[in-house]
Amino acid sequence: MTLTATNTFAGNPLDRAGDRRSDPDWLAQQEANPEALALVLWEGRPLIEDHAEGPRLAWLPLDHARDLVPDREIFLGLWKDAPVFAVEIEGSVDPAQGPVQGLGDFHEMRAAAAMLSGPDAAMAGGAKSLFDWRRRHGFCAACGRATRDAAGGWKRACEACGTEHFPRVDPVVIMLAIHDGPEGPRCLLGRQAAWPAGRMSALAGFLEPGESIEEACAREIAEEAGLTVTAVRYHSSQPWPFPSQLMIGLICTVDSDQARPDQTELESVAWLTRDEAAACLAGAHPIKPPPPVAIARTLIRAWVEGFEVGTRD
Questions:
Q1: Which of 45, 210, 281, 309 is the most buried (most CB within 10 A)?
Q2: How far apart are the C-alpha atoms of 31 and 92, rounded to whole Å?
Q3: Neighbours of 50 (CB within 10 A)
């Protein structure tokens, strides 16, 4: 099977070594490896250096990274058999003006993803999600006692009651709804009030317990736009490290073009033909498209290029 990463934050090149990182002896060997490297985050922002081929993650020897943040690293995986870690510096003072001065600059993750190569963005996004999870799970949900890092940062263990906690991923359906009426097929975009002026995007929402992907798609479309979904086709997925979601990209058909924004999630909606959607992506339409790092933009482009719900590639 061939895996094609089409979305930002997908395509992590590392061997996660999930079958070995729980072995303390093996992990200690990786930490002692003189070739071990670490990427650096500051409050969720990756350190990026300028390079002749373009911006890229700044990598530090693990020993140097540990001097910055002692005993706070996370094991990310193996890159061509070399161990790769991540450390995160906390605090309000930019370390690029202090301990890592001259090594690069820290950039907010969305901006960083637009600058970095796909593999670099994927590694940085994965590290951010792990640190966010660790920050939120310092105490056991079963007994309330403090937990400790295990398995290279991929597990939190409670020594009081023995419960083990693992990173969670929150699934989100994001779907481009299509209606084929007398004027031809059109796609539905919605707008949230908090977005930049003119911005519209595909509809989205979290899966609920006991709900399938298709059911979540239908429920969200009904709740937010008052439409009935008649068919659903999967397109692709995207890890979204804000803090740790999996965006499940869908294109669906609906029974009507009489969309009614719920005024809670959506303040307005718009229907676009393929030509109008193409103009939107090109910046030649009053509606501003989702940013390039968003899977919503991938879905719009896929439909413009002929992706249909009832056919297969």
A1: 45
A2: 28
A3: 10
81 — pLDDT class (breaks 50, 70, 90): confident
pTM of the model: 0.94
For residues 236 and 247, give the distance between their C-alpha atoms in angstroms, rounded to a whole number: 9
**What confidence tens digit (pLDDT) does each residue in 85-108 have?**
999 999 999 999 999 999 999 999
DSSP 55: -
Q: What's the rounded Cα separation, in Å, for the pair 137 and 48?
A: 28
Say how far residue 64 (Cα) sits from the centre of its chain: 28
Answer for the pair 175, 224: CB distance below 8 angstroms, yes or no.
no
Phi, psi angle pair for 130, to nearest 5°: -65, -45
List, for residues 196-220, the tens digit of each pLDDT value: 999 999 999 999 999 999 999 999 9
**Burial category of 51 from C-beta neighbours within 10 Å (exposed 0-12, middle 13-18, buried 19 and up):** exposed
| Helices 295-304 and 274-281, axial angle in degrees (round to 10) | 140
The CA distance from 226 to 224, in Å, is 6
Rounded Cα distance, 12 and 62, in Å: 20
Q: How far apart are CA 204 and CA 198, in angstroms?
A: 18
What are 191's two structure tokens?
Answer: 């707008």
Q: Chain-centre distance of CA 218, in angstroms?
A: 23
